Amino acid sequence: MTTECNSISSTHYKSHSAASTRLWIALAGVLLLLLAVAADTQAQTPTLIVMRAMPVRTTRAEYSTPLPPLTTADVAQIKIGGKATPVVSFTPLLKGPHVLQLMVLLDSQQMLGSNGQFEELENFLHSLPLNVEIGVGWLLQSKVRVVQNFTMDRGQVYNQLIPQTREEASSPKSDNGNPYACLRWLASHWPDADPQKLRSVLMFTDGVIRSNAEPGSGDQYNPDAHDTAQMLERDSIVPYPFFWQDPSPAGRNIGSLTGKDLLSQMVSDASGAALYEGLLAPTALAPLLNRLYSILDSESVVTAIAADKPGKLSKLDVKSARDDIKIFAPDEVMTGNVASK
């Protein structure tokens, strides 16, 4: 009888012990889940977003009339990753507190500068305020050959604006290898890794992809332009492509419409502005560069507090508080403006 009682007691104890263990495991799981949710809820990551206002009737960003920089009263709501995001400040892009890095990219297949265009480019760069650092690079064989790292010294920049001869531009060694591949390479090899500095690119090219046999059209999805826009967004780089194509008997002035459409596709996703007029390269750079200055001068740097950890690429939604404007910003934003590794 005693043996039977001991057996029953032992069985009861083991059952009770197993139940307690399962209970503690369940409670531990709930606690970990609550801690994870709390940590995610408490995440507060300052994130810089460059955006600007456009007239509500404008259909394409490059043709919009620049408006004054946005203010708190102009924006009804900002969401990052579907979560309402508080805004700390609105500051101007130019002459503001943030350093803007502008990489000037020259197409190795073009003769830009051979007819004095670099003087107009120098005038534009000289007009930029001192919170703008400038670098220079060449689109070359699907990469960017950086010849001048970011600097405030305009003289160093001008020294690197060396026009190419026709022979140099037409040489197989000067093939750009696809301007969008060059941009993707630059995004992953940005010369300055400081995530708190704003990033932008002024790229002179015709936007034509010559490195593959795929047809291009403004009515078709193009993976090069789309993937490049996504990578620029991930690395917080705003593109300002300037359409330039040498008139050439060698047939280079083909595909200009396709090139422009691809540049516009890229800009529509990653924000910025595509700069061109008509079907051919402009006879002078100054008018479009003046337009670019007015666009930069109209842009705001918005500091929002994202509810995600740094380094997360999230969908960006911005709602205007006014009926007469819409807000142009990237489709996605990297929280904390953390450069990808």
What can you see in these coordinates?
The chain is 33% helix and 26% strand. It has 341 residues and is an alpha+beta fold. It folds into 3 domains: 1-42; 43-93 and 300-337; 100-298, Rossmann fold. The protein has a 5-stranded mixed beta sheet. A 4-stranded antiparallel beta sheet has the order 4-10-1-12. It has a 4-stranded antiparallel beta sheet with strand order 3-2-11-13. Helix 5 runs parallel beside helix 6. The protein is globular.
Cross-sheet strand order for the largest sheet: 7-6-5-8-9
Question: SSE order in H/E notation?
Answer: HEEEEEHEEHHHEHEHHEEEE
The Cα radius of gyration reads 27 Å
CATH superfamily of the largest domain: von Willebrand factor, type A domain
* CA-based shape: globular
> Roughly what fraction of the amino acids lie in strands?
25-35%
**Number of discrete domains:** 3
- Helical amount: 25-40%
CATH architecture of the largest domain: 3-Layer(aba) Sandwich
